[in-house]
Structures are given as structure tokens and as C-alpha cells.
Design a protein that fits this description.
Number of strands: 13
Helix content: 25-40%
CATH topology: TIM Barrel
Strand order of the largest sheet: 1-2-13-10-9-8-7-6-3-4-5
Length: about 375
């Protein structure tokens, strides 16, 4: 059913006011999914127009989009999309910043520690001495990533673990906001065998100190880039400092489509939102900005890769991982991160006179708001 934007607004206004003990029935679900599809189709149409304007647009086996030097496409992303997935290793439960786009926003003081002397790998706890046992039993992954808050809070603990995996020829990448990086610890990471370092430059709104650290990292680590949720603030500041950033000789920029969870979504309340494949909820401007960013990079022929790490890419990632794990046909871990859909966050886009559905139809009588039980 191609619900009209006006009926969608009436319905979502109603749904957003339901109390917790009022249940959503199957007719409600049909309306909800129709609205989500109508919004998503309009967003996809706009994004496809933007993509058509990028002359050098490429795909990685149709799993994601990028522009630029193929040799600089991050191997961590290849592992994620083509290999055995993104094997995450967690250690640090603290961060020195408080970013409004952080998935742990508002709970940074209450993050449980992994455990003294322990590492979380694949959801299990290991001592460093257990890694040899792990490697002797499990098939080696194509790549691993060090994630979870800010590793540089205790980066010296990472060196021997990175060395172990480096000796096994496993590709490793690590995320950081870059504020605690120094020539000394960046050199130590390179010597330990870290293959790829990703700076969340948006965490500091393109701090000069972090830009300088990107250049230092390139002296010691083979592949260095930026991975940042694409926001209007980052887009604006990046282009103010573009020349200085490009002079670091970084290899790639991953433009991550910002998706939201229960911790951070109300930091963006009032923005136009959509839900992708009934999974991730994102502000519509995030991927639009990524595509505009890529178009500029392509036209100016930057000597690096700009990668559209979108919700579509995350969907493809989930399919690749389920296939590599031998799961059933169509299995995917990609899913909505909300226990209850926050219908109120879709009211702004339904109220936006400049946002149009591609086509609309009159609802069948039994679905019309005036005839449903309010």
C-alpha cells in the first residue's frame, strides 16, 4: 500500500502517543511498514540521483561504493565485506571524550570492564596467554579490529597482543579519536605490527593536533585513514581544513552513515530520519553528505579512497558474515537496535513540506485513520 504522507503523519502521531501497555496489532504493522517503505524509497531516489553525478563511482563486488585509488582501499573493510568478517577485540572500557554521536553516549561512566588482564574476543574472555590456544584451534580470521571506546587510554597493553596476531599474518586495524596519540606510541604500534589505523576525526571536529597525528602515524603504519560518522559539523570543518588533512598523505576516508541507538538518538531529535530495511535508523543528511563528499573528492582527484560506509554496506556485511559462518540462506545479524520503535522521531520528516513521497494512494477503508480505533 502506498500510504499518503498526510495519512502517515496522522498514524505516526497516534502511534507515538500510545502507552506502553497498548499493543500494536497487525493492521498497525502494515501501516508502519508502509510508511517506512515510502520514506525509504524517497530517500533512495534522492541518493541514487547523487550517485549518478559521481563519475568515478566504483563498487566492491556490489557490496559497497567508493571512489579513488583501488590500491588504497582499506584491507580491514575487505575483511569485513569479502573475508571472514570483522572479528572484534575489546579491551578498554573508557574514553577521554564524550561525543554526541557515540553509541555509548550517556553511559560512559557505567561501561563494564572486560576484566583485569583479559581481552574479549568473539564474546569470550581470554588472557593474553590463551591466544596461542585460540589460534591453534580456530581457523584464523582474515582480519581483526580493536574496537570499544578509546584504546589509547592504555595503549601499551595492546602491543604484545598485536605482535601475536602480526606473527600469524592476520590483518589488524585499530580505531582511535587520536587525541592521545604520540610519536612514541604510534611508532610502537607500527613496530608491533599494526597494519591499519583509523582516526575518528569527527570526534574532535578536525582538531589540528589530531590532523598532525595522522601525518605522524603515516611514518610508522602502512595504512592510515579517517573513519568518522558523517555529520554536517564534520563536513563543514573538513573542507575548511581540507588541504592540511590531505597533506598528511592519508590513504582512505570512510564516510560512515550515522546510525542511532537508544543512547544517542535524542541528541538528533528534530532531524529528518529514515529507517533502512527496518534496521538502522539514521538522519537522512548523513549519507547525502557522504555522497556529496565523494563527488568533490572524485572531481578533485584526491590520491586516496573515499568509501561510502552506508547502512547498505552494513547490510551486505551481515550477509557476508552469515555466509562465512555457514548460517542458513538469507541469515543476517543486521537488525533494528531499538526494543520499541520511537515513532516520534519520524514526525519531523512527515511534517517537512519539502519532503515528498514518490507516489501515494488512498488507503483501503479499513486502514483509514477515521475508521480505525483511536
Amino acid at each position: 500500500m502506498k500510504i499518503s504522507k498526510n495519512d502517515a503523519l496522522i498514524w505516526f502521531d497516534y502511534l507515538s502517543q500510545l502507552s506502553e501497555d497498548e499493543e500494536i496489532n497487525s493492521k498497525h504493522e502494515e501501516i508502519i511498514y508502509s510508511v517506512f517503505t515510502q520514506i525509504e524509497e524517497a530517500i533512495d531516489h534522492r541518493n541514487e540521483q547523487l550517485m549518478s553525478e559521481i563519475k568515478g563511482l566504483k563498487t566492491l563486488k556490489n557490496r559497497t561504493y567508493y571512489i579513488g585509488n583501488d590500491n588504497k582501499f582499506p584491507k580491514g573493510c575487505c575483511s569485513c565485506l569479502l573475508g571472514t568478517g570483522l572479528s572484534a577485540i575489546r579491551k578498554t572500557n573508557k574514553c577521554n571524550l564524550n561525543c554526541k554521536f557515540c553509541y555509548n553516549y550517556g553511559e560512559l561512566e557505567n561501561i563494564s570492564p572486560v576484566g583485569e588482564g583479559m581481552w574479549e574476543i568473539g564474546g569470550s574472555k581470554f588472557y593474553e596467554k590463551d591466544i596461542d590456544l585460540l589460534l591453534s584451534i580456530h581457523q584464523k580470521p582474515t582480519g581483526i579490529s580493536y574496537v570499544y571506546l578509546e584504546p589509547f587510554m592504555e595503549i601499551e597493553k595492546y602491543y604484545p597482543v598485536i605482535k601475536k596476531f602480526s606473527d600469524e599474518k592476520i590483518h589488524q586495524h585499530l580505531y582511535t579519536n587520536g587525541t592521545l596519540a604520540t610519536e612514541e606510541n604510534l611508532k610502537a604500534l607500527g613496530q608491533a605490527g599494526l597494519n591499519e589505523l583509523r582516526f575518528n576525526l569527527g570526534a574532535t571536529n578536525c582538531s589540528d593536533q589530531v590532523i598532525e597525528n595522522i601525518g605522524i602515524a603515516k611514518k610508522y603504519i602502512k595504512s592510515v585513514g579517517i573513519e568518522t560518522p558523517m555529520t554536517p559539523e564534520f563536513f563543514k570543518t573538513f573542507f575548511k581544513k581540507k588541504q592540511k588533512i590531505l597533506e598528511t598523505k592519508l590513504d582512505f576516508i570512510n564516510c560512515a552513515e550515522l546510525h542511532l541507538n537508544e543512547n544517542n538518538i535524542y541528541n538528533y531529535f528534530g532531524e529528518n530520519m529514515y529507517i533502512c530495511r527496518q534496521g538502522y535508523i539514521s538522519p537522512v543528511w548523513s549519507r547525502e553528505l557522504s555522497l556529496k563528499f565523494m563527488k568533490i573528492a572524485d572531481e578533485e582527484n584526491w590520491d586516496l579512497v573515499v568509501h561510502d560506509c552506508s547502512n547498505f554496506t552494513k547490510f551486505a556485511r551481515g550477509l557476508n558474515l552469515s555466509n562465512k559462518e555457514g548460517m542458513w540462506f538469507g541469515a543476517n545479524m543486521y537488525a533494528c537496535e531499538f526494543s520499541e520503535i520511537p515513532y516520534e522521531v519520524f514526525i519531523p520528516i512527515l511534517n517537512d513540506d519539502d519532503f515528498k513521497f514518490l507516489s501515494e494512494e488512498e488507503l483501503p477503508d479499513e486502514y483509514k485513520p477515521k475508521l480505525m480505533e483511536f
